UniProtKB/TrEMBL annotation, chain A:
Protein name: Sulfate transport system permease protein CysT
Keyword Lyase: no
UniProt xrefs under SUPFAM superfamilies: MetI-like
Organism annotation: Chelatococcus albus
The UniProt record lists the keyword DNA damage: no
Taxon lineage: Bacteria, Pseudomonadati, Pseudomonadota, Alphaproteobacteria, Hyphomicrobiales
From TrEMBL, chain B:
Protein name: Sulfate ABC transporter permease subunit CysW
Database matches in InterPro entries: CysW_permease, MetI-like, MetI-like_sf, Sulph_transpt2
Lineage: Bacteria, Pseudomonadati, Pseudomonadota, Alphaproteobacteria, Hyphomicrobiales
ABC transmembrane type-1 domain residues: 73-274
Location in the cell: Cell membrane
Record keywords: Membrane, Sulfate transport, Transmembrane, Transmembrane helix, Transport
PROSITE patterns according to UniProt: ABC_TM1
Amino acid sequence: MTAAAPPLRRLRRPSAIPGFGIAFGYTLAYLGLIVLLPLAALVLKASSIGLSGLWAAAMEPRVLAALRTSFGLSLAAGIVDAVFGLIVAWVLVRYRFPGRKLIDAAVDLPFALPTAVAGIALAALYAPNGWIGRLVEPLGLRIAFTPLGIFIALVFVGLPFAVRTVEPLIAEIDRELEEASATLGATRGQTLRRVLLPPLLPAVLTGFALAFARAVGEYGSVIFVAGNMPYVSEIAPLLIVIKLEEFNYAGATAIATIMLGMSFAALLAINLIQAWSRRRFGHV
Amino acid sequence: MSDTVLPAPAREGRGRRVTTEGAGARLALALAALSFLALFLVLPLVVVFVEAFKGGIGTYLSAFDDPDAQAAIRLTLTVAAIAVPLNLVFGVAAAWAIAKFAFAGKSLLVTLIDLPFSVSPVVSGLVYVLLFGAQGLFGPFLKAHGIEVIFALPGIVLATVFVTFPFVARELIPLMQEQGTADEEAALSLGASGLRTFLTVTLPNIRWGLFYGVLLCNARAMGEFGAVSVVSGHIRGLTNTMPLHVEILYNEYNFIAAFAVASLLALLALVTLAAKSVLEWRYGDALSGRGAH
């Protein structure tokens, strides 16, 4: 179906399918009402505070500490997720063992399990009298109610992102590539490092960025194991809630704006990684 | 290069397979992966049920005699019953517009639809407080007319709709793009009306993808904590959803009841995962759009 001479600068290509107007109109209206208008309210509130006001709010020591806790621990959790996500995806795709499909399905559990449930479950495991907490307590190690507890929760919520971005790529690897590498005299380690890993790298980075972005905003599963001590184990989203409970809308908005900015930066980074990967490897 | 010239690669040598790691490395990798998953996936799930049944079945069941727990379950079901159909209709409309037509600004629209996924749940709640809260943009107007949004059902529904916004659309858009417009064009040229084409041609083609999207949307809608916690006000028996009720019970050191309510949510997650896996195994082609042709 090619129109004879499409007029220049036409916004929509003609089509025989009906219903564009109503579907498109409804989509825009619903998107505007549910997502764009509320986010605009945040931007409006932020602009009424002004850049200097935002800066001042961010530099408040307690806020700064919370942002540092959130971003630092999310970074660490993202890295652990990326590394173990790669290993888990590799084992699930390449190795055959009983229960493999079941385990593969279970990887999505952190997506499906409500965060509050994950939170109290992790607290029950890692509290000093919990299943795992009890084991490490004699070693002088405390996990729950310290930044380490936050880290564990963040690794939990980010794991599926890391596994699911790498998994399809590993499944698509052409075995002939590995055979060629082996016939040319490479050891298995060399093949893994120099033939298989480079094309997987963009997906690993994307998985890291997704896990990181999710971890930065995570609230439910963290607050139960964090201990929530100001300056020590208080995350930025919790501080937003605290400011709201004090009716300090400006303070809450300032932190939210900074976090939103960071998550858009992460989104942009993901898009850049994918554009680079398409150029370099011809796939996402 | 054609296969007839080259001899088939020798695959029969069992001990010398070149496309896999040595036995030791395989064992180490598998052990690392499986123990990581056991620690991070299996244990948290198991602990929920063990803690819930710590006092025996009677204590477990008595947690649901509490009228507040029953109110929380009712509220969660109500919220999901409103939020999921809203996002279902939106998802179908958005996918229809995006997948069946070519227009300017499409990729921007797709990015905007995905936006709620990259917003922290707490921020998702906050934006509605800024709009409808007492000091919010529309706060004075709502107060003058006696309409309650924040700390009431509408606010909880709105926050839930926001966080589950992309689920159905994001499942359907790639699926319908893959399926193209040929089937619909054939139906239309044979004289079917637009609505009939949608109901008898498009809908059967996308039904498993739609079901899949609704499943994930529902799981998130019932389990959402952060966004709902910001707008709910935590009024027992009134604006407490199940996840919020879990928090209250837990903070009151009523651990068995907290884990009992949590076990219902965990069960929902398990059912969702099972249904999702069954869909993927049985209808994998229909989900990715390959089976429609």
